[in-house]
Amino acid sequence: MLQNNEQPNLMQVQINLEESMKQRGVESYLRSVNRAKAGVSEDHTQYGTRLISGYTKVLAQAIQKFKDEASSGRAGSKHTVLRYIGDQITTDQIAFLVLKTIIAGISGSQTAASLAVQIGTVLEDEMRLANIRMQEKRVYDSIVTGTMKRGSQHYKHVYAVRRAEYFKDGWVDWSRASKALIGSKMLDLVVANLELVDLEVKQSGVKSVYMITAKPSTVEWIEKYNMAGVRSPFEPMVVLPRDWTTPHDGGYITSNITPLHLVKRVTQKRLVALYGNAPMPKVYATVNALQHTAWQINAQVLDVMRTLWDNGSGVGGLPSREDLVLPPKPHDMDTNEGAALQWRRDASQAHRNHLEATSARIAFSMTMDVATRYSEFKKIYMPYQLDFRGRVYAVPHLNPQGSDFQKSLLRFSKEKPLGEGGVKWLAIHGANLAGVDKVSFQERVDWVENNEEQILAIASDPFTNRGWATSIGDVEIDKPWQFLAFCFEWAGYCEKGESYVSHMPIALDGSCSGIQHFSAMLRDSVGGAAVNLVPQEKPADVYGTVANKVLEKVREDLVTGTDDGLTEAGTLVQGTKTLAAQWLAFGITRKTCKRSVMTLAYGSREYGFKEQLMEDIISPAQKVMGSQFPFEGDGFRAAAYLAKKIWESVTVTLVAAGQAMDWIKAVAAVANQAKQAITWTTPAGFTVEQSYKSMKDLQVETAINGKIRLYLKEPIDKLDLRKQTSAISPNWVHSLDSSHLMMTVCEAVEQGIDSFAMIHDSFGTYAADTDKLFEIVRDTFVDMYEKHDVLDMFKKGVAASIDDETLQEELPDDLVRGDLDLEDVKYSMYCFA
Question: Which of 185-194, 429-438, 699-708, 746-755 has the lowest mean pLDDT?
Fold first, then answer.
């Protein structure tokens, strides 16, 4: 076992680790490819998707040519096919479905006869649904909506076809011979027009069997594509990562690992143009300081996690190790349509839950594997990158920016005694993890001290004392695994006092940071007070404030809202009285509104709120409440209703933020007229270029296979103006988050802090250094907005990229500032807490 990082061959250890990372990447990729081959589902692989997208347009043109010739009246082979493939579906759809069927088994040999029937069957299914769309679009839309809720292509297909069978549309089923005729013609066109497959003849006794096999050139291309597509699974390092001094030279040691760029997902050409010679001292200093932070695996937490995982326990939100099973079929399923329909719904939900559970299990298993292998090292390090907004991201799968259980597995490596200030911050952090974070600091410390007996019992035996994973008193634990890690730390403090060496990162989180940035730049005292930019005895809760306003509006609807009614077709439509009653029965809390308020600053609007409510609140509730679920259907109408109430409430609470976002979009709109990318420089000196390219795409919509958007190899050299406008607000605010983080890290390094746990608007370090960081994070926030007029910087950056003086004059006038005194931020206890 390697107990420390002082051994002379540690660099060789790292080189070996990087080689093994590459090998694991190859093995993992090839396993997925082999599974696809075995399951005849290669159309879902990366290379399968690329082949489909690359050949669909060519095949569609060949099909159209055949249809034109067949329609001319001239004799020709298999022209009777024409009466089956009319104009109900497009040639793009036909080509897509044909290729998808062929490529599903591209690596094996397929008999032409059976493949032709498969193609004919798939085309008949799609034609049947197209026929329904022409006769009764409402029924068709219902089928498509239901299909998209199914979790796999198999279930999509089964559902769509089964639903179509219930619609009496006069459809005459195609015979097997007709399917073979249609499919064989499609195979003829593929073989004749595409460099994809060959038709080979094999003798089977006295019979000749026709086989469809991939061309040698196709096999060679797939092999090369697979090797090029292998990506190493990034893991921590046991030596210091290479410092970033240029956009190309940081991170891992060897070329075994896929090379990192300082700014990910930016083309090499733009990387050099934007950052090659750019002086960015704060940027490089920040990323390197984060890479120099030494971590180690928290062995106590890992032992508990491994034991519970091995025992199949779901404590603390651990994923299930067992596959979910489908509900039993009702005994009268063949005669009771209602029972059959309910079973299909339940089975579909169970299948979706199974897919989610499988994904969670794989991710967790990967985390456990990495944590176990790196637990023998005293120090491990994380390479970091930026995104194009300047946000900082740790590269490895297991990292301090991950989920609750990932964060709990990591702790700082260096030894720093708590000291008096550290004890206070450790207690505050523990209360925050529990969810006791809407009260004063002293009340948080008091909560820990009042529950110390149970905290120590947890640390002594977390298997018997499971309050860390459920609740302590009337407090439901918010982050169970990190809270468990805190219990171990608090037990250490109780045993050794202030001299206890605490390794736990203490987080100072921004209070709805997007709104904080808008309030600071506009000097908005109302918004600033709502997000704790001004001193207050207890923390303000903007999410709770909005939730209370929403409650008022909903209660008002309960009395004065609309009644239920009927549409012209006789369908019941719930009125706002009913919807209000349902929501009041369900409960409206700060949690209901939190994500919507949080994402307002990032451009989310009423429609986005509706999607968030479905994802965060309604769909999870439907899974656990069953028959007690209070909303009609899947709850979508209820989500739309409450989204409107949240929108109305948040826009009157945070008026200035809305004005700022409108102003930013107005500036972006002028840049769009000039057809220019939007570029600006942050206060930390990082250049942001927002340049969303339009994509030349082939969009194929089929009821069976869902909405498929196939992109060709290269984007068009043309801006996606809609995306340029819709994305500008979130991207700009994220760039300000990143700038504040960079300025904070640089100042903290100057003041002797050497370890950081940073997540965009969350600032973490040792408990012993938190008093110092507590001041720095506020000082740098104030400095950023006192020394930089970010609105003016943004406007000038856009103006400089526009050559047309007339357009420059269309840029909006400056916004009026309010009366917020930024110096107050330095004395606010709860703006970053």
Answer: 699-708
The DSSP output letter for 768 is: G
| Phi, psi angles (nearest 5°) of residue 746 | -60, -45
Using an 8 Å Cβ cutoff, are 313 and 383 in contact?
A: no
Contacts of 460 by beta carbon, 8 Å cutoff, 6+ apart: 491
CB atoms within 10 A of CB 719: 21
Q: For CA atoms 735, 740, 745, 746, give the dihedral sign.
A: positive
Q: Write out the E strands in 687-742.
A: 687-690, 693-702, 706-719
> Rounded to an integer, what distance in angstroms lies between the CA atom of residue 679 and that of residue 96?
39
DSSP three-state, residue 390: coil
In tens, the pLDDT along 177-203 reads: 888 888 888 998 999 999 999 888 876
Q: What is the dihedral of CA 816, 822, 824, 826, to 10 degrees?
A: 160
Say which residue, 343 or 394, is predicted with more confidence: 394
In 3-state terms, what secondary structure has residue 752?
coil
Query: How many whole angstroms separate alpha carbon 528 and alpha carbon 818?
Result: 10
Rounded CA separation 671/669 (Å) = 5
In this predicted structure, the answer to whether residue 285 has a pLDDT above a threshold of 90 is yes
Q: In 3D, which of 430, 406, 404 has the Cα closest to residue 492?
A: 430
Q: Between 753 and 312, whose confidence is greater? A: 753
Q: Which residues have C-beta within 8 Å of that of residue 665, sequence separation ≥ 6?
A: 725, 728, 729
Full-model pTM = 0.79
Name the pairing type of β-strands 687-690 and 678-681: antiparallel
Q: How far is CA 252 from the centre of its chain?
A: 26
Active site positions, annotated: 509, 594, 761
CB 317 within 8 A of CB 485: no
Q: Is the dihedral of CA 510, 516, 521, 523 positive or negative?
A: negative
Of 58-72, 156-170, 509-523, the range with the lowest mean pLDDT is 156-170
Using the Cα atoms of residue 596, residue 602, residue 605 and residue 609 in order, give the sign of their dihedral.
Answer: negative
Interatomic CA distance for residues 566 and 574, integer angstroms: 9
According to DSSP, residue 617 is labeled I
Compute the C-alpha angle 373/374/375, nearest 5°: 95
CB 523 within 8 A of CB 657: no
The dihedral region occupied by 538, where left means phi > 0, alpha psi between -120 and 50, and beta the remainder, is beta
**Burial letters for 458-472: b for 16+ Cβ neighbours within 10 Å, e otherwise?**
bbeebeebbbbbeeb
Per-residue confidence band for 150, with pLDDT thresholds at 50, 70 and 90: low
Read off the pLDDT band of 3 (50, 70, 90).
very low
Over residues 112-139, the pLDDT tens digits come to 888 988 898 888 878 877 777 766 666 6
Q: How many residues in the chain?
A: 833
Q: Is the pLDDT of residue 703 over 60?
A: no
Phi and psi dihedrals of 193, rounded to 5?
A: -115, -15
Q: Residue 293 and residue 757: Cα distance in Å, rounded?
A: 8
Among 249, 310, 313, 94, residue whose Cα is nearest residue 185: 94
**Which of 99, 290, 316 has its CA nearest to residue 212?**
99
Given this model, what pLDDT does residue 696 score?
65
The answer to whether 208 touches 201, Cβ cutoff 8 Å, is yes
Q: Residue 767, Cα to own-chain centre: how many angstroms? A: 31
- pLDDT tens, 261-272? 999 988 888 999
Contact 468, 728 (CB under 8 A): no
CB 422 within 8 A of CB 461: no
Torsion of CA 591, 597, 601, 602, to 10 degrees: 50
> What one-letter code names the amino acid at 196?
L
CA distance 453 to 73: 91
User: What does the DSSP 8-state code read for residue 501?
Assistant: B
